[in-house]
Amino acid sequence: MTSDPLLIVNDLKVYFDTEQGVSKAVDGVSYMVRPGETVCLVGESGCGKTVSALSILGLLPQPPAQIAGGEVLFKGRNLLELAEEDLQSVRGREISMVFQEPMTSLNPVFTIGYQIEEVITNHEGVSHKEAEIRILKLLQDVGIPSPKERIHDYPHSLSGGQRQRVMIAMALACSPDLVIADEPTTALDVTIQAQILNLFRELQEKRGMAILQITHDLSVVAGIADRIYVMYAGIVVEEGSVWQIFRDPSHPYTMGLLESLPGRREKGQELATIPGTVPDPTMKPSGCPFHPRCSYFQESCRDQFPPMCNFGDDHLARCPVIHAERIA
Amino acid sequence: MKDSASEHTLSGETFGLPPQQTRLEEFWSQLRKNRLAFAGLVIFGFFFLVAVVGMLLTTGTSPVLDPSLVRLQEKLRPPLSGPNLESLLPEEVPPLRVYLLGTDELGRDVFARMLQGAWVSLTVGFVAVGLAVIIGVFLGGLSGYYGQNSIRVGQVILVLLALWVVLGWSGMSGVYLVVLAAAAVVVLASMVLLHRGKSHGPFAVLDAQLISVDALITSLIDIMLCFPSFFLILTVVALLPASIYNIMIVIGLTSWMGAARFVRAEFLSLREQDFVTAARALGISDWRIIFRHMVPNAIAPVLVSATIGIAGAILTEAGLSFLGFGVPPPHATWGNILSDGKNYLFDAPWLTIIPGLAILVVVLSFNLFGEGLRDILNPKLRERH
Predict the structure, then answer these.
(1) Does residue A178 carry a pLDDT above 60?
(2) Radius of gyration over every alpha carbon of chain B, rounded to an integer in angstroms
(3) By the 8 A CB rule, do A64 and A53 touch?
(4) Nearest to residue B273, comparing CAs of B295, B296, B294, B302?
(5) Strand extents, DSSP E, chain B
(6) pLDDT tens for each residue of A129-159
(7) Chain-centre distance of CA A25, in angstroms?
(8) Share of chain A residues as helix, strand and coil, in percent rounded to the nearest 5
(9) Is some CB atom of chain B closer than 8 A to the CB atom of A137?
(10) Is the dihedral of CA B25, B267, A63, B189 positive or negative?
(11) d(Cα B376, Cα B23) in Å, to the nearest integer?
């Protein structure tokens, strides 16, 4: 993996003005995606995964959201500083997005063929005939049976899994370099989930695009990711390859997450949990945001914001306590 | 990876494409399936034809059917009665030798008057309501979609400058224009700089937020609703030259508020739906999202209120004509036949029943068509038929 990163998110800060104060949904997040790899952002609900992904494409309504700092470099251009018109030509063409809820992500009043065609003709001046052929090819690629009949169907006559396939076809219509998938399998049942994940994998092999998967489901992560960023309360707490994260978790939060997987326990034993709850994003704890729930808590965690510590081979975690332990 | 050449060499035959059905053809076949809507369209088409034929038959120096020919000895004849040939001059005898729909209090042939009035009444209904729907959908859509986005001081100044230039175009000296244009450029440039966060200082006041788009448009709606619209129309009509087209436009300009509210309300919920975010994420422009993606989802209540609005517009025109502001007499419209006839409600009920029925049928046919249109625009509702 020596190629230049496709996307670099650098110290991104997204705040929301709320009545309770400033909610720091994303508070200094950095990650990168290289061409052709699958990167997963993992974390529980409300940790800022989706917000950070939406702000890559400038999809957050401002206000209430406000980009408080950082940069998003895509092929060397800072997307946060692009004008709306320039962003529109990036969206769908170079970076596209698949959403969580396939039941509502398609417009109910247009046929699926029309919706895919709109994406194509919006970005490339191709004729109707040419577009139609590409749509059929796309539908075939994403595994919609008998695409030539389905192309004139409306979303309500498709199942959830089929709709998600159509959404993926729309996202791939202009062969983007990066697809952001925001929990694409959460709303689907487990067998369909596996099919969709396999589909992503196949399409990636065929087309070579990079995928940024956002998920809270560790079993999804294990199956597809090349690299993982674990997020907690608006920051990245640990990053590394799948192997590193699953075999050698080096942040107490990641350890807690992995401990709480049902498979890690003997039958009949109670599941492990992480004590406490996620902090209110308007009133985050001082120092390390995880310290009130952490079993490795030391006094210094209360005041000092933990730096990223290197555990070797690009495996980083924000926990100097464990780092000191491992070194010793 | 961009598309490889192999994808382009695939032809339609590879997939055995079914014969192409354009959106218009699909629309038409859906309409044929929906019998009520199709009946509505047919009835409306018939009335439209009658209006055109009526206009041809009743205009000119010696029309076939003369709607303004007064035969006082033949007044208030019931429908289908024959004329008294002895008391009439040869040119006063109706060409059909029968008063199909009777005569009014001046002995004018109601059939001829209905034919003459059809065109005006239909166009008043449709132009006024069409205008109202267009304005309503536009403003309601902006208000619902942009909602909390604020209008900034600089933008207001720009609009005022533009209005100033447009309104005072003719009477303004060249120097004045140059000064205004320069002011506009300064404001615009400093706004652009502010937007990029590169400029501060005295111009920052231009970026101050005044009022949200939503608040502006909803208060405009409320202001318009405050005026009793009939008197507003009267005022405007008194200032404008009397012409049926001015009437249509004025009725349209004073009746868009309902449509705007409906669209705004629908947009507030549609805006949060994922397909809107998804469309934005795929690089589709705001205007296209509003008018191509969201309006078909929001149009149902507007169509229903528009069908009722047509009847309202026909009657408003009648009221204006009655007061002497609308179509000048002796030109007939369904509205003024109706309002003249109400004085003879018991002696000559056909004078009110006939134009009333005509308005009813037009409104009903448009209503049926509107409901069908709603079902066609929203494929989920098609299942019921």
Answers:
(1) yes
(2) 28
(3) no
(4) B294
(5) 150-152, 209-212
(6) 888 888 888 888 888 888 888 888 888 888 8
(7) 15
(8) 35, 25, 40
(9) yes
(10) positive
(11) 11
Low-confidence ranges of chain B (pLDDT < 70): 1-23, 168-173, 193-208, 242, 322, 381-385
Helix, strand, or coil (residue B306): helix
| Chain B positions in Cβ-Cβ contact with residue A207 (cut-off 8 Å) | 1
- Report yes or no: A119 at the B interface, CB cutoff 8 Å: yes
- pLDDT for A276-305, tens place per residue? 777 777 777 777 888 888 877 777 778 878
Q: Does an H or E element contain A74, and which?
A: strand A65-74
Note the pLDDT tens digit of each residue in A213-266: 888 888 778 888 888 888 888 888 888 888 888 888 888 888 888 887 777 667
* Terminal CA-CA length for chain A: 31
Tokens representing residue A168 in the block: 């993926």
Q: What's the confidence (pLDDT) of residue A312? A: 78
The tokens for B339 are 């309002």
Q: Which residues 35-94 of chain A have a CB within 8 Å of chain B?
A: 57, 59, 61, 63, 81, 88-93
> How many Cβ pairs closer than 8 A exist between chain A and B?
109
The CA distance from A277 to A275, in Å, is 7
User: Quick check: B187 and B157 in contact, CB under 8 A?
Assistant: yes
Q: Is the pLDDT reported for residue A34 higher than 80?
A: yes
Tokens 């059905």, residue?
Answer: B21
A208 contacts B1? CB cut-off 8 A: yes
Determine phi and psi for A230, rounding to 5 degrees: -95, 125
Binary contact (A59, B17; C-beta < 8 A):
no
The amino acid at residue B116 is: Q
Interface of chain B against chain A, CB under 8 Å? 1-3, 7-8, 10-12, 14-18, 21, 23, 26, 148, 196, 273-275, 277-285, 288, 293, 296-297, 377-380
Among B7, B18, B280, the residue with its CB nearest the CB of A59 is B280
In this structure, what token pair is assigned to residue A155?
Answer: 């979303």
Pairing mode of beta strands A227-232, A38-42: parallel
Question: Are residues A88 and B285, on separate chains, in Cβ contact within 8 Å?
Answer: yes
What span, in angstroms and rounded, lies between the C-alpha atoms of B10 and B108?
71
The DSSP H or E segment spanning B262 is: helix B257-270
Location of structure tokens 């192309």: A151
Pair A59, B281: CB distance under 8 Å: yes
Question: Per the CB < 8 Å rule, is A107 touching B293?
Answer: yes
Q: How far is CA B47 from the centre of its chain?
A: 18
**What ipTM describes this predicted complex?**
0.78
In this complex, the residue of A63, A122, A147 whose CB is nearest that of residue B283 is A122
In angstroms, rounded to a whole number, what is the distance separating the alpha carbons of residues A41 and A67?
19
